[in-house]
Structure formats: C-alpha cells, structure tokens
Amino acid sequence: MFEKTIKQACDMLHVHNDLTKFEDTIIKGVSIDTRKIEKGNLFVPFKGENVDGHQFVRQAIEKGAGAALWDKNVTNPPEDLPVLVVDDPLLALQSLANQYRHELDLKVVGITGSNGKTTTKDMVASLLGTKYKVHKTQGNYNNHIGLPLTILALPQDAEVAVLEMGMSGFGEIELLSEISQPDAAIITNIGESHLQDLGSREGITKAKLEIVQGLKEDGLFAYYGDEPLLQEQVKDLSLGRIETFGRSEANTIYPVTIEMNNDGSQFETSLYEGQTFFLPVLGQHNIHNALAAILIAKEFDVTVEGMKEGLKSLKLTQMRMETSLGKKGENIINDAYNASPTSMKAAIGLVSELDGVNKKILVLGDMLELGDNEEEYHLEIGRMIDPGSIQQVYTYGRLGELIAKGASERFEAENVHAFQDKKELAVMLEKQTQSGDLVLFKASRGMKLEEVIETLTN
Questions:
Q1: pLDDT tens, position by position, 393-443
Q2: Is 50 annotated in some ligand binding site?
Q3: Best exposed site among 91, 116, 279, 412 by fewest CB in 10 Å?
Q4: 119 labelled ligand-binding
Q5: What is the reported pTM?
Q6: Beta bridge partners of residue 5, listed in sequence order
Q7: According to the annotation, is 118 in a ligand binding site?
Q8: Is residue 95 part of an annotated ligand binding site?
C-alpha cells in the first residue's frame, strides 16, 4: 500500500504549511473513516452537508493515524499535529492515487457499463489471477473517492489492478480513467440506469465512453459489439486497438455453442473453437461478461487452460446471481444488488429457461433512477413475464406495484401479489414456497430485498 514519509508526501502535493518537525514520520495507507483507522494511516477529512471531517482529525491521530490532510479554507489547522494543509483534500487524494499508480510496475484494467461491471470485474480478476498478482475493486469503491482509495491500498508488488468505474453523470468516468490510466478498458453494455441524470441512452453511451480518455495510447478497448449506440459513437473516437464481444458473429469473440443447466453454462467461443469453458454462474448475459474477460485474458497472455481454470473457480461479489437454499429447501437466487430494465429482463429470462424445479417465483422491486419514463419501464417488465414459464409474481415498492399491474394483464389474479410492506411480503412467501421451488429476487439496491431473503433462510 501507499507508504511515504511526510516529507515525501509533501513533495507529491502542494502543501501550504511547514511540516519540517514531522518530516520523518511514516504514512502508511489511507483512511476516510476514524472508525477504521489503522496505525500510520493518512486521514483524509471531507466537508459534508451535515458533518465536517476536520473536526475528527485530532481523534484520528490519537487513534494512530500518522498524519491528516487539511483543507486550506478551513480555519485554525492544529499546529501541534502532522496535518498537511492542501487546496482540497479530495483533489489531493486523487493526485496521490494517480502518482502512486505510476510508481508501481502495474497494469490496470478499467471496467464500466450499465449492468454487469461488477461481475465482469470478478471474472477478469479470476482469469488474470491464474498468472498474476491481481487486486480488484472491493464492494462499491468505484467512484471519485473509492477508486483512489483502491489504488492507494494496492500492495507494492501488485501486478494487475482490475478497477470498476461507476458514475451518475458526465465527467465522472473520465476523471476515474485519467486517475487510473488503464492499459485495457471494457464497456459491458448500455442500459437505462441513470436516465434520470443523463437524459437518454445516447447520453449514457457518451458518459460510459469517457473510460477511453485515460486509456494508454497502445491500450486495448473492448466493448459489447451488439449495442448499436456503442457502434455508432465508437466510430468518432481515435483509438488504436478495438475488439468486441457479444452474440453476433460480427464480434471479435462470440459464443459458438451454449449449453445451460441449473449449475451454470458450458460454451465454446469463436476464438478457441473446440475448447469448452464452464461458467458456474447462471444466465446467458453472464456468458457475454465472460467473453469480455477472455478478451482481456488473451491480451495479458493467459493460457486457454488458465482461462478455463479462472472461470471454473470464479467467486462473485455478493448479491450477483448469488444462490442459496431456503429453510424449506427453496432454491433462492439473490440478484438484488442493482436493477435496470435490461438486467431485470435478463434475470427473468434466465429463470424462465431453467428446468428441474417445482414452481418458479419472481420477487421484484423498484428499479430506481430511470427518469421520466420510470412507470412505463415497470409496466413493461410486468407485461413481458410469461405465465407459461413463471408461476407466481410478487412485487415490493411503489414502482414494483406497476410491475404487478403489468403482469396482471397476463396472469390469474391469485398468482400476482403487490406489497408495500416487506414483513407482509416475507410472511406470504413463507406460506407459499416449498422444497424445490425457485425464487428470484431482483430490485435496485435501495429496496434492500435481502431482508426478505433472510426470512426465508434463517
């Protein structure tokens, strides 16, 4: 991880105060939370709407922090403490991350997209991990604060960093790309998330393509080639090396054969015909993510056997197609970390295709940040659910009720239930489910459907 003397840190930043008496103090690692301070950390305070982190600087150092940053616009920096007075602590954090990234003998893979970026991150890390010392974004540390913290936490012997890049508006991914300077970049797809902020899918495409702004001149750009909006906007970019993945044979890599079962998928690809890959994750959309990971693994000279092993041993971040067994023997799929119309349709399609189960039950909640057309998107989801493949639909939330309304156009009334109370939903599910049933949970993260899952599993 980042380790410097205070003098070295001052040389990396524009520091306004004299820290000569502290210059030999060692800083090791970075923290923004006094509850998680470790010995030697550089504490970075932020000014929020309700709380100013500067008031916790002394507490952080008393807990073992080696030093702290301090915003020059905040008065009375403590002269008895090792505080580095800078123009802006956030900009200082980002600058340190960028400089540390260049100090390391390191390759960076940047990943963005409306859906599937976390799963693709996990896949890329797993495949590259068969050959390199790989570190990846943890949890949701994929924004203007989280990504710099991820870089500054990288061990000095790290060989590859796989960094997820999220955003809610224009300019955010460009910043992350400029900080991390990726050697390879992926766009998984273009969906509807953040329509509220970006106005259209064309706007989302433009924002996601900002990932190439910091891409190395000889770096590889890989994107979902079946998306017309990406095809159109990529034409206007001056990029050296571009490869695509998807179902169409026009892509650099596409699946030649696919065989799906309840344990995962087996597939062959156009690049390695005759070689069968096993993916222990449900859903055809995840095969597309795996194709992106294979492109990156090929770029990094991972052998085909290494790719196979990386996919076979894949471990996904929680609540991404996470399977578990309920206390009655129900098969539960928890895909409730995030949701958009694209990802919800994919998840419903997956459940519809699975065999060897009793009843198939959907538990769907609100999809957030969809902008002015959010109600129509939810109605559309309900209308596309096939009663020939799905037996029961349960919804939660104000917008979820519109999914139920759409489903009611095709389902018998007793097979569609809308709830505004999670406890009532959980009680109903407990009564209705039995051994051998398959239950999919899908909603935006803010709906916290895992609380209902806990009722079925504990």
A1: 999 999 999 999 999 999 999 999 999 999 999 999 999 999 999 999 999
A2: no
A3: 412
A4: yes
A5: 0.79
A6: 26
A7: yes
A8: no
